[in-house]
Design brief:
globular, 17% strand, alpha+beta, 195 residues
Length: 195
């Protein structure tokens, strides 16, 4: 049996790309050192014994449940709160090779919002991201069919913030999740405001 980190096509199980694990691992090492990262890896390896971030390739499809376990391990093993998970998401957008490959499109946050649904489908096999609003200094994205974990919602809000502040170079970007499937809504809605 091949280890999970060899390429797996996105099938019926919800999947995500491996690149994000590597970016997050670097962030964890900067904040908590190798020992902190090792604790997170050990926690995830309880369910996935072959969990090996170093063996992942950026474009490998990996189980989204593994992604949730990774983020939950950051909370349980490192004592991180939602604020730190949000910050890790922000950092990921700044460091992501996938986002950087689209940087020429992101001259403004409005363009970033416009291309967000396309980029979503390249990185997640589940969920549907749609542009709801894209105006002057305000925008909204809707994420439907993505009921996996509230920690993912927190992380994604941070990621979207990172895209706006560093990639699109908008000033004073504020991103919040105004609706969430984990709080009774039928979809998640992320609201963007910037100056």
């Amino acid at each position: 049996m091949m280890p999970y980190y060899f390429f797996m096509g996105a099938g019926p199980e919800p999947m995500c790309k491996g690149a994000i694990f590597k970016v997050n691992a670097n962030y964890i090492k900067r904040i908590c050192g190798q020992e902190g990262l090792d604790r997170v890896i050990s926690s995830v390896a309880r369910k996935w014994p072959h969990f090996n971030i170093g063996g992942m390739r950026d474009k490998d499809w990996l189980p989204l449940d593994m992604r949730v376990a990774f983020l939950e391990a950051c909370k349980s093993e490192l004592g991180w709160d939602d604020r730190r998970i949000y910050q890790m998401g922000t950092d990921a957008a700044q460091q992501s090779s996938i986002i950087m490959s689209f940087i020429s499109y992101f001259l403004t946050i409005n363009k970033a919002l416009q291309y967000a649904p396309e980029i979503w489908g390249n990185n997640y096999s589940t969920g549907k991201l749609e542009l709801l609003e894209n105006g002057k200094n305000h925008g909204r994205l809707s994420l439907s069919d993505f009921r996996h974990s509230p920690v993912l919602c927190t992380y994604l809000a941070g990621f979207f913030h990172g895209v706006g502040t560093k990639v699109a170079k908008a000033v004073d970007v504020r991103v919040m999740e105004e609706q969430c499937v984990h709080r009774g809504a039928d979809r998640c809605v992320f609201s963007f405001d910037w100056d």
